[in-house]
Amino acid sequence: MRPSVFSLSAVSLGLAFLYGPIVLLILYSFNDSRLVTVWSGFSLRWYRALLQDRQMLDAVWTTARVGVLSATLSTILGTLAAVALVRAGRFRGRTGLAGMIYATLVMPEVILGLSLLLLFVAVDVARGFWTVTLAHTTLTLAYATVVVQARLSGFDRSLEEAAQDLGAPPWRAFLTVTLPNIAPAVAAAWILAFTLSLDDLVIASFTSGPGATTLPMRLYSQVRLGVNPEINAISTLLIGLVTTGVIAAWLVQRRRRA
Questions:
Q1: What is the rounded distance in angstroms from the CA atom of residue 242 to the CA atom of residue 216?
Q2: Given phi > 0 = left and psi -120 to 50 = alpha, else beta, which region is 213?
Q3: CA distance 157 to 151
Q4: DSSP H helices in 166-228
Q5: What does the pLDDT look like over 67-90, one tens digit per residue?
Q6: Pick from 5, 18, 24, 52: CA 20 to 30 A from residue 46's CA?
Q7: Is 29 helix (H, G, I), strand (E, B) or coil?
Q8: Left if phi > 0, otherwise alpha if psi is -120 to 50, otherwise beta: which for 53?
Q9: What is the pLDDT of residue 1?
Q10: Structural domains of the chain, with CATH
Q11: Half-sphere exposure (CA, 13 Å, Cβ side) for 109?
Q12: Of 68, 73, 94, 75, whose CA–CA distance to 179 is shortest?
């Protein structure tokens, strides 16, 4: 059955609405003009300017470090929490533990950011790189737990029990049997946590300090003063990075299925 004209039109309009602004952003990142709405010719001017913008590069480096550290911490803690929730049975405090972990899934970011700010002030911790990292770990912990818990719930424990019957202690059986089998879920949890950290603006604004300006904070501060074509350049690079990652993941999945 061929799709109707209405269906094709609706899909086309939807795709244009979603991806049209992204295409324009990429196009105008190669614009020679300082005005983002006036095309004056193809140029790499703003990419060269981006490479010379020390503040922007520092923000990118800070964001990358915060993202890697917070994603790693939240993935490790989320995996441990998932193991406890799936395999520890009905222990006392299980409901409270699950509630505290999953609270960040429904809690507004402004409330979470404000509460973390008050905590850091109360314990007299100077706000900076590590407070942003801890804040992002708190934000992404629940997401990592959900992803790993879903995989552990369907894992066949007989494989791990067989390893224990052969003499492997529980921790070794988990590391050598269970962990390799749930590795795709752990990797997905890490990528999701890194993406959420990369995207966050609200919580970082509350918990950052001198020398800990993340890329979203830097972009937001510049946009408030007017859109600079340099912003189009950095956004295009981020889009290219994400697109490359998606294509690479698709190729890996396709190769495994083949």
A1: 16
A2: beta
A3: 12
A4: 170-173, 179-181, 183-199, 202-207, 215-224
A5: 999 999 999 999 999 888 887 767
A6: 18
A7: coil
A8: beta
A9: 65
A10: 58-226 (1.10.3720.10)
A11: 15
A12: 75
CB atoms within 10 A of CB 168: 16
Q: Report the C-alpha dihedral over residues 87, 135, 131, 75, rounded to 10 degrees.
A: 40
First to last CA, the chain: 30
Q: Which residues pair with 42 in a beta bridge?
A: 31
Could you give the CA distance from residue 239 to residue 29 in angstroms, rounded to a whole number? Answer: 12
Contacts 24+ apart (CB under 8 A), 53-57: 53/230, 55/213, 55/218, 56/215, 56/218, 56/230, 56/234
Cα–Cα nearest to 235, from 16, 28, 15, 14? 28
Name the pTM for this structure: 0.84
Q: What single letter denotes the amino acid at residue 255?
A: R
Name the token pair of 131. Answer: 């407070």
As a whole number of angstroms, the distance between CA 93 and CA 97 comes to: 6
Closest by CA position to 59, among listed 252, 234, 253: 234
**Residue 249: how many CB atoms within 10 A of its CB?**
13
User: Residue 94: which residues within 8 A CB-CB, separation 6 or more?
Assistant: 85, 88
Sequence letter at residue 99: G
Sign of the CA dihedral running 29, 23, 246, 72: positive
Amino acid symbol at 25: L
